Structure formats: C-alpha cells, structure tokens
C-alpha cells in the first residue's frame, strides 16, 4: 500500500490507475510551466509544485474553512491526547497536529508526503509556538517506521473523500495502527458509514441530458441522450452543484446505510464486493439519480458527527465550504429492464426514465471496486417479488 494521504487523486479508478497516478505525482512540475506562453506568474509561486497549488486552491482552503469539521477534531482530540503520543497521517499544513499539541499531547509526529506542505506546516508550527512539540516528517505513512517505545497512543487523520473510502482512509489507517501505534491506540475518526439515497430532480438530471426543443429553437437533439452516462459516479463539487440549493430535489427513498468501516481495523475484504438492498419508493415520480453521502464518528461517540448529507449543510455557515470540498456523489439512473434489448440499425436507444409509484418495492444493487473498495456503482431494478 503506497498512498499519498495529502493528495486527492481520482476516486473512480481501479487500483492500477491509482498506482499510475501515484507514480505521476512524483514528477515535479513548476507552477509557471502550467501557464500558457505569454501569461505572467506571480514571483511567490514560481518554482513551486504545480500539483500542490492546484489541489490547495481546488479543495484544501475550503476544507480549512469548514468550522464544524474543525470542531469535530478539536472535540475528539480534547478527550484523548493530553500527555499522549500522537501520529497525524496526511498532516497537510499541520492543523490537526497543532490542535493535538495545543490540547496537551506529549509529542506529535506529523507525516506528510508533500514536501511543499511540510515546509508550510513547519512555518505554521513556528508561528503558533508549537514547533518543539511537533515533528514533521516528509514521507508516505507506509514508509515511516517507529520503535515500540515511540509508537502512538492516538492516530489522527482526515483523509476522507467524497466517498467514505475514496482516499484509502481504511488502508493507510489500518497500516498506521499496526506499525506506528500501540496495540490499544485510538483512531480518530473511529468509524464511518457510507449511505445512498434515491432522488428526483429534473434540474439535476438536465445537467447530463439534451435540452427540450423549446430551449434550442425547436430542434430535437434527443439522439444525443444515447451518450448519457448511467454507469459512472460524478461529484457535485466538480460540476459546481450544491444539492442543498436545488428547489426541485425530492428524496425518493430513505437514506440507505450501505456499509460501515472501523478505521484502523476494517480491511477491504471485510466489505462485500456486491450487495442488494430492498428499497421502497416514498413518492410517485421519476428516480433520476442515486446520491451518496457518509457520516463519521469520533471515538466513544457522543460528540459531533461529520456528515456530507445535503440536508446537514443546508443553511449552515460552514455548509458552503463542505459542499465545495466534499460534496456528494451522483450516479444517474435509467430503467434498464424497460429499455430495448437491441438498438435498431443506425440508431442508439436513449436511456429510459425510471418511473415509480409511491410504495413500490425496488432493488438497489451496489458494486464496489476490487480490491480496494474505493469506488461505488449502482443499479436500480424493480423488486422481483412484485
């Protein structure tokens, strides 16, 4: 297992693509080389890692602004770290390490794969007067080794993606707990649950469909719908969508818990590769998509819960930042069983909308990528016993 906890790499790829991306990430590219010829580069950015600058501006600043996320970690660490040894996996600019040190940890080892972020973390530690408590190590967590007497009482990490396991939190936290922590060490967050929900939203569906004739001077462009992707998951943040702001969004099912993971313990083989859930339609209408969200809990429970559910971010001062750095996963739905078996010669069939009536029983099949369980795919069908 060789992952960079800091880097948010594509989460829909298989393990080969993940490894390929890790190899590519090792190639340094100065920021100015990303700019087109003739464009000016601010002097402070010249010679810096272009990938890190891109990622920090894409999601990392938004993450740091998520006050409820920060409160979650502050509350959890406040109950655990006083007088303890702490390891921070994927430390980034050092926020969680700073928290642990300020809350009384005996020592903190901040492990960060990005050289650029390690430099900034050390500066942040100095500016906050905590450099003597925290040691920053520029390394992948899987390459760090600690003697038994220096192993951690607490392992903390925030490497959760739009999908609960999309950044391999289960893999590197399991590895860290085995090799960098004491046998009775506590992991923060302690556990998480991946959820899915069926939704109806014409405006959401229209982002991946041809417009009606009245929107384009009467022309019928519906043949283009043959290319609509109903197999892959996309992230709302990548399309600038906030589900909490959609006025036509209707939950067509209850939130379905797909699986749970105990961080530091759960291995990929502990999670089934395929599962089918019986779902009841809450309303009559069209199921346009499946929405994925998750919740994460602190050790011992009872404190704040991290959630990416769009209902939890609605109207919250930190909600915008959470939607911009995590957001939700979306997979469009079509009625495969009602679709033509074969396309007519020279024409491709468009996806058939999945019409349901209130109370109808449905079967939602969930497939997870093998062997890492990082990616998710859905297929919705009508229950066979109807």
UniProtKB/TrEMBL annotation:
Q: Please name the GO terms that the record assigns under molecular function.
A: histone methyltransferase activity; protein-arginine N-methyltransferase activity
Q: Which InterPro entries match?
A: Arg_MeTrfase, SAM-dependent_MTases_sf
Cross-referenced CDD domains: AdoMet_MTases
Q: Keyword Mitochondrion on this protein? A: no
Recorded hits in Pfam families, A to Z, give: PrmA
The superkingdom of the source organism is Eukaryota
Q: Which UniProt keywords apply?
A: Methyltransferase, S-adenosyl-L-methionine, Transferase
Q: Name one GO biological process term.
A: methylation
Q: Where is the signal peptide?
A: none
Entry-linked PANTHER family:
PROTEIN ARGININE N-METHYLTRANSFERASE, PROTEIN ARGININE N-METHYLTRANSFERASE 7
Q: What is this protein called?
A: Methyltransferase domain-containing protein
Q: Which organism does this sequence originate in? A: Alexandrium catenella (Red tide dinoflagellate)
């Amino acid at each position: 297992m060789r992952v960079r906890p800091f880097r948010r790499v594509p989460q829909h790829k298989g393990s080969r693509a993940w490894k390929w991306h890790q190899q590519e990430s090792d190639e340094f590219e100065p920021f100015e080389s990303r700019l087109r010829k003739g464009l000016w580069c601010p002097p402070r950015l010249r010679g810096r890692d272009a990938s890190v600058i891109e990622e920090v501006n894409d999601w990392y600043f938004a993450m740091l602004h998520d006050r409820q996320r920060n409160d979650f970690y502050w509350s959890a660490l406040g109950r655990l770290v006083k007088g303890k040894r702490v390891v921070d996996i994927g430390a980034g600019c050092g926020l969680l390490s700073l928290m642990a040190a300020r809350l009384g940890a005996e020592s903190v080892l901040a492990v960060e794969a990005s050289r650029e972020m390690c430099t900034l973390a050390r500066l942040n530690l100095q500016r906050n007067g905590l450099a003597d408590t925290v040691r920053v190590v520029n390394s992948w967590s899987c390459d760090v080794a600690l003697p038994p007497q220096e192993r951690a009482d607490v392992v903390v990490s925030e490497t959760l993606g739009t999908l609960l396991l999309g950044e391999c939190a289960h893999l590197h936290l399991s590895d860290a707990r085995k090799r960098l922590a004491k046998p009775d060490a506590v992991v923060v967050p302690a556990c998480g649950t991946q959820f899915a929900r069926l939704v109806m939203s014409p405006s959401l569906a229209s982002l991946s469909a041809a417009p009606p004739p009245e929107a384009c001077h009467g022309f019928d462009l519906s043949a283009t719908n043959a290319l609509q992707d109903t197999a892959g998951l996309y992230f709302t943040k990548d399309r600038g969508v906030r589900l909490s702001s959609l006025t036509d969004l209707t939950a067509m099912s209850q939130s379905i818990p797909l699986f749970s993971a105990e961080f530091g313990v759960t291995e990929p083989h502990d999670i089934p590769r395929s599962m089918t859930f019986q779902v009841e339609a809450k309303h009559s209408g069209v199921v346009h998509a499946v929405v994925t969200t998750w919740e994460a809990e602190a050790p011992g429970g009872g404190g704040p819960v991290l959630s990416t559910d769009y209902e939890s971010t609605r109207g919250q001062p930190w909600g915008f930042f959470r939607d911009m750095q995590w957001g939700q996963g979306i997979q469009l739905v079509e009625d495969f069983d009602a679709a033509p078996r074969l396309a007519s010669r020279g024409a491709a069939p468009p996806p058939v909308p999945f019409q349901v009536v209130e109370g109808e029983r449905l079967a939602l099949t969930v497939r997870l990528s093998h062997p890492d369980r990082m990616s998710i795919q859905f297929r919705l069908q009508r229950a066979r016993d109807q």
